[in-house]
Write a structure and sequence with these properties.
The chain is of the alpha/beta class. 44% of the residues lie in helices and 18% in strands. The protein is built from 14 helices and 14 strands. The protein has a ten-stranded mixed β-sheet with strand order 2-1-3-12-11-4-5-10-8-9, with helices on both faces. A hairpin with a 3-residue loop joins strand 6 and strand 7. Helix 13 crosses helix 14. The longest helix is centred in the N-terminal third of the chain and has 24 residues. The structure holds nicotinamide-adenine-dinucleotide (NAD). Nicotinamide-adenine-dinucleotide binds next to helix 11.
């Protein structure tokens, strides 16, 4: 064995450890109070593939719901150009510098899905944005009232397997190693976000989901810190679960209705929230929030659906997911009444009246026709 590999790997590991210690030391936790802010700037990012198609409908809904505040200047809708796969590839940057600078002038973002090239070295725009804007909480609600399901997932969004995902170590033809990072402040802040949500929304249980029996250091620390935070919330029951059995629990009709709030490390959260969205009817039905203390980004949970575009069916994309994300955004910026109104309209259009049919991953009428239906319903409320 060539000792050079070991020496190089040790050097690389030292650098990674120093950088992670530095990242951990920089973390703080002090959420913004939007209700006290005179003006809120909402950045609108179209994205790729079906992104511009579903975003057009979301923009119409925002303009209708926030009309007076937009006129008064209390809300600004700011289009952010340039986060397209063509521009990113041309510049060789996952998020071009000028785009990032424009994004940082906003308080919150509503974002269409962005394509990540297969292979190569380009990082996903989302991973870059989560890191650059320190969006540490990925929040995904899933609700299926007829099945007794009312879940909300708090996925840690900035560390775990993702923070060093493209910086592993390789000995050619022999082995490859990746790293998983759990920091104390990074875990405390996601745990606190989940327990605060539970307290403020009348929830009585939080499931802490890890694989701490195997990943003893990282997941062991995650679980222990969640319990430490849980001790400050005596009215909320904190339960430990392993990710494998939780994946089974979500499809077990006998017990899934007992779960309310979940808090979990990055990779498990990534996987299990897609499973949960599928139970709700497909990825086209679910929205998600990526929140930090300074910035927040809201989006559909699905990707840019390149196959739908190739088949010429892009105009039939289901905008329900981006509408759900819009509702989450409105709640985040303390526009609860507008969020409730949108939730009501989505319930009428998607569950009770169903005058325009949508399925989990297709609209039977066009995306724009469904947008018209939601707007007409909003106008009648
Ligand atoms: P995808 O979510 O784009 O598509 C999966 C399936 O769901 C496809 O059959 C697609 O047609 C369908 N679908 C998704 N959203 C739909 C909608 N609103 N209406 C109708 N049908 C819908 O997943 P993928 O094909 O694995 O990924 C495509 C690209 O998107 C990749 O480059 C990937 O990296 C990227 N991606 C981006 C994000 C994001 O920006 N948040 C998330 C996931 C994937």
């Amino acid at each position: 064995m060539d000792n050079n590999y070991i020496d190089q790997a040790c050097k690389q590991f030292r650098t990674l450890l120093e950088q992670q210690l530095e990242r951990s030391a920089r973390m703080d936790h002090a959420a913004k109070d939007f209700s006290a802010q005179k003006q809120v700037v909402i950045g609108l990012i179209d994205g790729d593939g079906i992104g511009p198609i579903i975003m057009r409908e979301a923009k119409r809904v925002l303009e209708a719901l926030l009309k007076e505040e937009i006129t008064a200047g209390a809300i600004v809708l700011k289009p952010i150009e340039g986060l397209t796969i063509e521009n990113r590839l041309a510049l060789g940057q996952s998020v071009p510098e000028d785009v990032l600078a424009a994004i940082k002038t906003c308080d919150v973002l509503l974002k269409g899905p962005t394509t990540t090239p297969k292979g190569g070295t380009m990082e996903s725009a989302n991973v870059t944005l989560r890191r650059e804007l320190d969006l540490y909480a990925n929040v995904r609600p899933v609700s299926v009232p007829e099945l007794g399901i009312d879940w909300i997932f708090f996925r840690e969004n900035t560390e775990g397997e993702y923070v060093l995902g493209s910086r592993g170590i390789e000995v050619p033809d022999t082995l490859a190693m990746d790293f998983k990072v759990t920091t104390v402040p990074g875990t405390r802040r996601i745990a606190r976000t989940a327990f605060e949500y539970a307290k403020n929304n009348g929830k009585t249980k939080v499931a802490i989901v890890t694989k701490a029996n195997i990943m003893k250091k990282t997941d062991g620390l995650f679980s222990a810190l969640c319990h430490e935070v849980a001790a400050e919330y005596p009215d909320i029951q904190a339960e430990d679960w392993y990710i494998d059995i939780m994946a089974a629990n979500l499809v077990n009709p006998d017990i899934r209705g007992r779960f309310q709030v979940f808090v979990l490390p990055n990779l498990y959260g990534d996987i299990i929230t897609d499973e949960a969205a599928q139970i709700q009817g497909g990825v086209g039905t679910a929205g998600s929030a990526n929140t930090g203390d300074r910035y927040a980004m809201f989006e559909a949970i699905h990707g840019s659906a390149p196959r739908l575009i190739e088949e010429g069916l892009g105009d039939y994309a289901n905008p329900s997911s981006i509408f759900k994300a819009t509702e989450l955004l409105l709640r985040h910026i303390a526009r609860g009444a507008a969020a409730d109104k949108l939730a009501k309209a989505l319930e009428i259009c998607g569950q009770t009246e169903k005058k325009v049919v949508v399925t989990g991953d297709r609209t039977v009428a066009t995306c724009a026709a469904y947008g018209d239906y939601v707007l007409e319903t909003l106008a009648g409320l």
